[in-house]
C-alpha cells in the first residue's frame, strides 16, 4: 500500500543528505564519478564526500578512496551508485546495512529494452530497495539538483551555481530535464530543483510531487513523464498539489505508436494512451504541454503575476499584422477574443481619436501607443471590460541599453496591476528571441507580467492556465470500491467466461443485464437454441428482427458473420440461423455455437459508443463518441476520468463532432441529452463499483433517436479481470 508520508520523507533524505558516498569512484577519463564529485564541490555542498573503490587507495588527485562502507569514518547517508548493473542490488543492500538513508543509481541495464536478463536484474533491484529501506532515485538517471541544500549530483557541467526558485523539475529522461532547466534559466526563471528520476524502481512521481507540495519554495512542478508507476498514488498527489495552489505542468509521451515503443525501450514500462492521460489530467489539475517551448511559456505565466480566472482574452497591438496573427492563432487554438462592450469601444475611441470601429484585438496603431498616457489608458479601459479575463499587450524586451525605450511602459503596467482587483496582463512578442544578460536584468524589474514568446505558444499558454485556474478539481481520490455488491450483480458476474488471456467475458445478454441494473436500457431479447425457436421468438417480438450469435468464444460478432439484420419473416429467420452457425464453424472448429439472440430491429437513430477502458498507466477511463462503423472510420471519441461527474460527462460530449447531431442538425429533432449524460454517469458508477475486477465496458452502438426520450443499448460487452 502506498504511504504518502514515507515517500515524502524518502525524497527529503535524498535531497538533503548529511554526506555523500560515491561507489564506483574512478580516475578513468570521462568517469561520471569524477563529474559528480566536481558538481558537489562546484556548487558548495557542505557535507563530506567519500569515494569507494576497493582497487584504489586515492582518486581525483590525493582524495582518500575507501575499500567499502565499513571503512568509512562516519555512517553513510546518501550513496551515489556507479557500478555495473549486476552489482547494484548488492550495493543497495550493503548501503542499507551500513545505515544509509538514500541512494541515486546511475547504472542502467534493468530491463529498459525489455530483455529478460535486464528484467531479472530490475526485479532483484526492487527487492533490494524494499529490503534495505533506502529511498532510491533511478536507476538509469543523471543525478539530482536541490538548491536549498546546495546539493548537486547532476552531471551537467554548465550549471555553475545553485539558486533557490519557485520551480521544481523532475523527469524520467535526464536529457529532457536538463533541457527544461536551461530553457527556464535562459528566460530568467530559476528552478530550485532538477531531478532525473530514471526508471523509478524506488521513489516515483507521486513521491516527488508530494514532497514539492510540502516545500515552501515550490509553486510550479514541471515534469516529463514516460510512464506512471502507481496510478492511484499519482492521482492523489496531483490533487494535493492542486488543492495547495501549486500547478503541475507535464510533458507526457505515449500519444503515438512510435512514442509508446520509445517509452518501452527507455524505461521498461508500457506507456498509456495520451487521451486517457489527458482525461485524468483534467480531473486532477495537471496542465499537459506538447514541447519544452510550450512548457516554458506556461511556466512563465504561472510564475509571474496573477493567474487568470478564465480564458477570455483582450489584446492591444500597434501592428495590424500582429492583430491578424492573433486572430488566426485564436481560431487554431480555440481561444476567445470576446467582442468588446459598447462602452469600452466608445472610451477607447475617445482616447485614440479613431472613432468607434474598434475590435478585439485592438489595433491602436504605433503612433497612438507611443504616447505613454494613451497606452496606459487603453490597458485601464480593457481592465474594466466585464467580458475579459486577461489582457495581452505587444512588446519585445530590449537586448541592450538604449534599445526599444517604449518597453519602459511595461514598468508602469506592472505597477498598475499591483492592485488586488486588477486583471492579469501578459506581454507577447511576434516571434521567439534570445535573452541577453541585459534582457534578463531588465525583465527582473517587473515580475507581475509574464513575457511570452510567439503568438501561438502565448495564446495556448494563456488558455491553459486560464482554464486550469477556473476549472474545479477533484476533492479527493479514493479508488477503493464498495466491499459488497448486490447478490443479483454477483450472480451475473459469476457467469463470466474465462479467456486464454486471463480475462473473463460476460456474454451479450449478461452484459446488458448488468448495464440494465445500472440504468442503461436495452431491448427485450429472446435466446433461441434452434432455428424453430428463433422463428417463434421472432413471431412473438414482431418483424423486422435481428439475429446475433451467442458463443463464449466470440467477442466481436460481426467478424465471424454472427449478425444478420432486417429479417422480415419466419423463413428468413430460419435461414439466418443456419447461416450464422455455418459461418461460425468456418471461422474455427473450436468456436462453440450455443444459439442466437432474437431482437427487434430499431429504426434509424444516432449511433453512439459509451464505454470504459483500463489504461495501463492511469487506470479506468470512460469513453464517449460516434458509434457503429463510424467509431473505426472517424475515431470521433473523447475520454473522461472515472469517477465522472455531470460537468465532465458534458465536457466529453462537447468535445466530439457527434455532439452537433445530438443537438439537432439541419432541421432534425434533438436527442435526449440528459439521458446521454446519465448513461455516462451510469457506466462510471458501474466501473467504480467493480474497481479492480473490471477490464472494459463497451456499449456499441448505443442509439439515441431524434425527438424521443431515452437510449437503447443494441450491443454490449463487459470484460472482467482478476483483481491485482
User: How many H/I helical runs?
Assistant: 25
Name the quaternary structure.
Answer: single chain
What is the residue-mean pLDDT, rounded to a whole number? 89
Which CATH class of the largest domain is shown?
Alpha Beta
Characterize the main sheet. 8 strands, antiparallel
Q: Roughly how much helix do the residues carry, as a percent range? A: 25-40%
Q: Which segments are poorly predicted (pLDDT under 50) over 5 or more consecutive residues?
A: 264-271
Which class best fits the helix and strand makeup? alpha/beta
State the end-to-end distance.
12 Å
Choose one word for the global shape: flat
Q: Would you summarize the structure shown here?
A:
By secondary structure, the protein is α/β, with parallel strands linked by helices.
Can you put this structure into words, describing what you see?
Helix 6 runs parallel beside helix 7. Helix content is 39%, strand content 20%. The protein contains 25 helices and 31 strands. The chain has 4 domains: 298 residues, Rossmann fold, CATH 3.40.50; 167 residues, 3-Layer(aba) Sandwich (Rossmann fold); 165 residues, D-amino Acid Aminotransferase, Chain A, domain 1, CATH 3.30.470; 78 residues, ATP-grasp fold, A domain (Dna Ligase, domain 1, 2-Layer Sandwich). It is an alpha/beta fold and 724 residues long. About 1% of the residues have low confidence. Strands 20, 21, 26, 27, 28, 29, 30 and 31 form an 8-stranded antiparallel β-sheet that branches. Strands 9-8-11-10-12-13-14 form a 7-stranded mixed β-sheet, sandwiched between helices. The longest helix is centred in the C-terminal third of the chain and has 18 residues.
